[in-house]
Write a structure and sequence with these properties.
It is a single chain. The protein has ten helices and no strands. The protein is mainly alpha-helical. The longest helix has 40 residues.
Length: 311
């Protein structure tokens, strides 16, 4: 009996890890390829389509996070039923993608092959590294805020339930700008002004948490949310704006998201360790302030009107 329980537990844990790995692989592939598909299929509407892609991803993610537990607990579906709903929607998305095979024209493939013949190693491009660092820094700042903002607010004297609501408000403030910013950026030859606004918003929100009054914490949340929306949208746009064709956009997207998310994943853990070592949120907030400044520095290069491979 004991051996049977152990075997079932082993297979259950193995299935969980394998399923999580498959899901992670699928998400990674889609995240990398979608910016290049936008550049290939909508070359004259990159800003608008990137905005639609970004806001859809954030909005659907927020909805799924918000209703999964109520579906599992209150609707009686349990966690298997809640996951099953997202599995059905994934199957529907497959049907939508299958229709795209009929829309591929033979000359598109020939054009792509001719364009890719002039290959550029993105790993040796300063522009690609600037875009990658911009992607990583903005992701790190956002992940740190998602992970630790409630605890930071509790230290400011805000109770736990309110701090959770403030985190939700910050995430809601992100949504409109994930659509607006790509549309505006797509019409500009140089996105330095948007990069400047991004850094100033993040710096202002962080300084508000450091030195501002808890009575106006809603303002700091809105500033941080808008700044995060600006930063994420710009990072998505740079994959298309800094490349000449879809193949190059896919390579830059793969580089920036792999290195960038690896950098971002370390952020919450390091910030948590720093808090434990100092027993204060002040040093971590200064790290976020420095990251906002560094985001502007690398953003100056990423926002210039030039392509990967240029000197």
């Amino acid at each position: 009996m004991t051996v049977g329980i152990v075997i079932r537990s082993f297979y259950g844990a193995a299935s969980l890890y394998i399923g999580t790995a498959v899901l992670g692989f699928a998400i990674a592939v889609c995240n990398v390829l979608l910016p290049s598909l936008i550049k290939r299929d909508f070359p004259r509407r990159i800003g608008a389509m990137t905005g639609v892609y970004a806001i859809s991803m954030n909005l659907c993610g927020a909805i799924a996070s918000g209703i999964s537990v109520p579906l599992a607990a209150n609707a009686g579906l349990k966690w298997q039923g809640a996951l099953g709903i997202w599995g059905v929607l994934s199957f529907v998305s497959i049907l939508c993608w299958l229709t795209q095979f009929k829309n591929r024209l033979p000359e598109q493939g020939a054009t792509t092959r001719r364009t890719v013949s002039h290959h550029v190693n993105v790993w040796r491009s300063p522009v690609a590294w600037q875009v990658t660092l911009f992607m990583g820094i903005q992701s790190m700042v956002f992940y740190v805020l998602i992970a630790w903002l409630p605890e930071i607010l509790i230290q400011l004297g805000i109770d736990a339930s309110q701090s959770g609501w403030y985190l939700s408000l910050m995430q809601l403030a992100v949504l409109p700008f994930t659509f607006i910013v790509p549309v505006v950026a797509g019409r500009m030859s140089n996105q330095l002004g948007l990069v400047t606004i991004t850094s100033l918003l993040l710096m202002a929100g962080t300084l508000g948490l450091l030195y501002g009054s808890a009575a106006v914490v809603l303002l700091w949340m809105i500033l941080l949310g808008i700044g995060a929306g600006f930063a994420f949208s710009l990072s998505m746009m740079f994959f298309s704006l800094r490349t000449k064709h879809a193949h190059q956009a896919a390579e830059l997207s793969g580089m920036a998201q792999s290195v960038g998310y690896l950098l971002a994943a370390a952020g919450p853990a390091l910030i948590g360790y720093l808090h434990d070592a100092t027993n204060s949120w002040t040093p971590p907030l200064f790290i976020l302030l420095g990251a906002s400044v560094l985001l502007f520095i690398v953003g100056m290069g990423a926002s210039r009107d030039r392509f990967v491979g240029a000197n």
